[in-house]
Design a protein that fits this description.
The chain is globular. The chain has helices spanning 15-27, 38-47, 64-73, 89-97, 110-121, 126-132, 142-154, 171-180, 202-207, 224-227, 243-255, 281-286, 292-298, 315-326, 336-344, 350-364, 372-375, 379-390, 397-415, 420-427, 431-440, and strands at residues 7-11, 31-35, 52-56, 58-59, 62-63, 80-84, 102-105, 161-164, 189-193, 232-236, 257-258, 267-268, 272-277, 301-304, 333-334, 369-370. Helix content is 46%, strand content 13%. Strand 4 and strand 5 form a beta hairpin. The chain folds into 4 domains: 7-121, Rossmann fold, CATH 3.40.50; 141-304, P-loop containing nucleotide triphosphate hydrolases (Rossmann fold); 308-390, Helicase, Ruva Protein, domain 3; 397-449, Homeodomain-like (Arc Repressor Mutant, subunit A, Orthogonal Bundle).
Length: 452
């Protein structure tokens, strides 16, 4: 079967830019069609199938967001890359939040154009993504179903994703799933524990160094960014980054270039950034411990991993699958009493703690039957947590109210396509009050998108 030539739609109202992009993409062996405005682009999208759309943000008859919304509302499987004015990162972030695959800044650099186009054309098709989506995240609770659905969507973008959640809730697993479903699935994935690197070594570890840059630098060494080139870098426990490193990291994310310690020239790096932490990053910003501008750059898309307390009905199934993986040649199985105890326990360490409990129980049980006492879970704690579960998850009151508030705000934002001014009117609060609540609940949008 012959391979079809990918088709690219370019949308721009400046003839010289259209001509330049047409020439560059044609030389890449692509079939190119051009539109001089939003309306013509919509007509072409209605009548033909495209593998990629490159659109300018500002045009005479509309903007690139209108093209992006048109594609999204009709469920067209077309990744969109927007072209923004140089330095206008606010528009780029707004587009990424709205579902754009990536962005390019004017004047468009040909090497970056080739990188973005190549990545977009390597995207797995939607059907393939759906088949793979969520294969490694266990549970069928509404919270977990929402996480898996979001992972499937953000995987088809280059947007930075910030993954929050308690320790042991599967943040790195979620990051790996995003990568496996993305166009970078076959490229390097480099997870970095930001809290485990001594502060005086951070710059050389992240950006690399040249031979002779300092005592002991007897050869050139690449850093995490170079190791993750064309792939994905996970900044785990990003809240632990010191302020000095936050400044340098922000510049690398914006410029997509790094300078090794001891080097005079910068290197271009093509890296997608994922980040995670069990801390409340918005609270860290309010406390002055984390830069707000870096927070907005990392938190373009927010993904919250549910705790096991929010998935009690899933615990027996998750426990069974973990047991099948850990028991090896053993025929160990759970008694009904053991499964009941597991489902009532809060698991402050989440899935990681559950795995440790089951591994210990397999070693302690007799006649391959795991009894409640083999789990070695504190009865008092289990009893207290049982009463909390019986209350319908309404205690502690502060956590319950936060969950309700978050759901209501997300519903209003969804109705208004994340226009916070309109959402505030629906909720009957001031814009300032809504922004504060979103920051407190880690539902974040950059200020500049308010009137987008």
């Amino acid at each position: 079967m012959s391979k079809t030539i990918p088709r690219v739609l370019i949308v721009d109202d400046e003839p010289d830019i259209l001509e330049l992009l047409e020439l560059a993409l044609s030389r890449m062996g692509l079939y190119v069609e051009s539109a001089s405005g939003v309306q013509q682009a919509m007509m072409l999208l209605e009548s033909g199938k495209f593998d990629l759309c490159l659109t300018d943000m500002r045009m005479g008859d509309g903007d690139g967001m209108a093209v992006l919304r048109f594609i999204s509302e009709r469920n067209l499987d077309v990744p969109v890359a927007v072209i923004t004015a140089h330095g206008n990162l606010e528009n780029a972030v707004a587009a990424l939040k709205a579902g754009a695959f990536d962005y390019l800044s004017k004047p468009v650099a040909l090497d970056q154009l080739r990188t973005v186009v190549g990545a977009a054309l390597r995207l797995p098709d939607v059907q393939g993504s759906n088949r793979k989506n969520g294969a490694d995240l266990l549970g069928t609770s509404p919270a977990m179903l929402q996480v898996r659905e979001l992972i499937g969507r953000v995987a088809r973008s280059q947007a930075p994703v910030h993954i929050s959640g308690e320790s042991g809730s599967g943040k790195e697993l979620a990051a790996r799933m995003i990568v496996s479903l993305s166009a970078r699935g076959e490229q390097p994935f480099v997870p970095v524990n930001c809290g485990a690197i001594p502060e005086n070594l951070m710059e050389s570890e992240f950006f690399g160094y040249r031979k002779g840059a300092f005592t002991g630098a007897d050869k050139d060494k690449e850093g995490y960014f170079q190791a993750a080139h064309q792939g994905t870098l996970l900044l785990d426990e990003v809240a632990d980054l010191p302020m000095a490193m936050q400044v340098k990291l922000l510049r690398v994310i914006q410029e997509k270039r790094v300078r090794r310690v001891g080097a005079t020239e910068e290197e271009v790096v093509d890296v997608r950034i994922l980040s995670s932490t069990h801390h409340d990053l918005a609270k860290r910003v309010q406390e002055g411990k984390f830069r707000q501008d870096l927070y907005y750059r990392l938190n373009v898309i927010s993904l919250t991993m549910p705790s096991l307390r929010e998935m009690r009905d899933d615990v027996p199934r998750i426990a069974q699958q973990i047991l099948e993986r850990l028991r090896g040649a053993s025929k160990a199985r759970f008694s009904k009493g053991a499964l009941h105890v597991l489902s009532q326990y809060d698991f402050p360490g989440n899935v990681r703690e559950l795995e440790n409990v089951i591994e210990r129980a397999v070693a302690l049980c007799s006649e391959d039957l795991i009894q409640p006492e083999d789990l070695q879970l504190a009865p008092a704690e289990a009893s207290a947590n049982s009463s909390r579960a019986d209350s319908g998850g309404k205690y502690p009151l502060a956590d319950y109210l936060d969950r309700i508030e978050r759901e209501v705000i997300l519903e209003a934002l969804a109705k208004t396509h994340f226009n916070r001014t309109a959402a505030a009117k629906i909720l009957g609060v001031t814009f300032r009050a809504l922004r504060y609540r979103m920051d407190r609940l880690s539902i974040s949008e950059p200020d500049e998108q308010d009137e987008a």
